[in-house]
Amino acid sequence: MLPPTHLPITFPLAFPTPRHALNLLCTQHLLAHVLSHPSHAGFFASSPSSAAETATRGVLALFLVSPAGWDDAANLLALPGWRRITPDRVAELFAIPTHTERRHESLPVTVGEVDKAAQAVVGALTETLRALGELDSQCLADHVVSALEGEHGDVAARFCEQATALIPALADPYALPAHALPSAPLMLLQDLSTYLSRAPDPVIALPPPAELDARSPLPLALAPCIYLGLLETPHRARGSLPVDTLLGPPLVEPPVNGTGRRAGIDVVSLPAAEWAELRLRSLEVCAAVSDATGKSYADVCRLFGALHDGMTRHGVGYAIAI
User: Fold this and answer.
1) DSSP string, 66-132
2) Taking a C-beta distance cutoff of 8 angstroms, is the pair 230, 285 a contact?
3) What is the pLDDT of residues 42-76, one digit of tens each?
4) For the whole model, what pTM was predicted?
């Protein structure tokens, strides 16, 4: 069964106020987007946690170590707390080891090495948090609520426009067709709508989840699109396992290497222009699958996320990197 949201929206936490909960969800989506950049695909291909899982774990850690006060410099979910956050602190809270150990080839000693891919991930998180820490407000949720207040009309289009103006990295790296909206802010809005529809005292009124889930096609995970023959690239052939098998449990668990990371997951490197073209074409795949199945665009996006995870479980997964 597919999850009703792109990222988890329920946590075993007692939030001091609804604003704290909203802020955690907004931060979670932002950092999941940062970690999902294809330049980090190689790292997450061999990590025990996905980009989304790492973002969720990280924001929960930020919450647990932070006082409730927004003006407290120790609050690491408040924008002022982000201004001085260090890479070491980010690596600690997001549980990203930036050094590895290996046995020396000829001596009976262990050698420490810098994990450059991990350092790049930590660097991207740190840079994002520090840059947003310079905004003139207490927390990220304030900007989200501000963008959603005011005039009626196309709430999703207005929010996506304001979100990408505030944080340009949220924009998709290709020219969108006229009917499509930027995926990262739209996916946040979809999850916020589901979350607020269940809240006893919602902070702000949003269109219902079903309306937002059908608002715009979304880019899909590329590996299952290629594996199922819905997109083509000379770098990878179509696979043979059917959808039902990919969504089911594996017959054999994939191996884990000596560092505790999954082993045997390939990384397919594409030129940035080809990656962007495939992502753009996946919007057409999303629309076609939606028309054929009656599922919303958001449900199709979540389905292909589940297929990507299923490919990994069955040992046929690979990451698309640039």
Assistant:
1) S-S-TT-TT-TTSHHHHTT--HHHHHHHTT---EEEEE-SSSSSEEEEE-HHHHHHHHHHHHHHHHH
2) yes
3) 999 988 899 999 999 999 999 999 999 998 889 99
4) 0.91
